[in-house]
Amino acid sequence: MARVDKPVLGTRQCPDCGESGSIHLAAGKRGSLYQRCGCGCRQENGRMMQSRFYYEAEWRPDCKPDAPANVYPLEEYREKLAALHERNRAAVGQPDRESQQSREVAPVSETGNEPVTKPDFIPEEKPEAEPENSKKGLIWLGAGLGLIAAIVGAA
């Protein structure tokens, strides 16, 4: 079945591939927006993505559609976008696992074949905690055995 694009209503810079993608209005009762770019056809229907399509598009003259039903109001969209950027900045600021290990090569091992690496950190040894339910389990086991003994003794 051949694909037929809807009319181009505007354009939006794709954050993933960097191309300028065309914005279209999907057929159907939801009236969602979608984008065609180097990534392909992006049809995300979530509130945040629909809001991004709607508010970040450069609309052609007289082509701006009404906002789809699941688009955030502009102020709420700006707040959520700022919070999303803040979370991303915080996540990037935290070191990943690879950066926690030393990449410096230590002296050659005794076999002489492979280098020895030394980690930057040594994990703390935590004593194994005794399960809290072990005593309760023994009490229930004793009560169950006592009940069985009483039933067998009465019969």
Secondary-structure map:
Blueprint: E1 10-13, E2 20-25, E3 33-37, E4 40-42, H1 47-56, E5 58-59, H2 74-93, H3 97-100, E6 105-108, E7 115-117, H4 133-154
Antiparallel strand pairs: 1-2, 1-5, 2-3, 3-4, 6-7
- The fraction of residues in strands falls at 15-25%
Helicity, as a percent range? 25-40%
Strand arrangement within the widest β-sheet reads 4-3-2-1-5
- What global shape is seen? elongated
End-to-end Cα distance, whole Å, is 77 Å
Average pLDDT over all residues: 78
Query: What ranges have pLDDT less than 50 throughout 5 or more consecutive residues?
Result: 99-106
Radius of gyration based on Cα positions: 31 Å
Number of strands: 7
Q: Sheet bearing the most strands, described? A: 5 strands, antiparallel
Class per helix and strand makeup = alpha+beta
Number of helices: 4
Tell me the series of helices and strands, N- to C-terminal.
Answer: EEEEHEHHEEH
Q: How would you classify the quaternary structure?
A: single chain
Give a structural overview.
With about 160 residues, the protein is α+β, with helices and mostly antiparallel strands. It has a domain at about 10-85. It has helices at about 45-55, 75-95, 95-100, 135-155; strands at about 10-15, 20-25, 35, 40, 60, 105-110, 115. The strands form 2 sheets. A 5-stranded antiparallel β-sheet has the order 4-3-2-1-5, covered by helices on one side. It has a two-stranded antiparallel sheet with strand order 6-7. A hairpin with a 7-residue loop joins strand 2 (about 20-25) and strand 3. Helix 1 (about 45-55) packs across helix 2 (about 75-95). It starts with 9 loop residues before the first strand and ends with a helix. The model is unreliable at about 100-105 (pLDDT under 50).
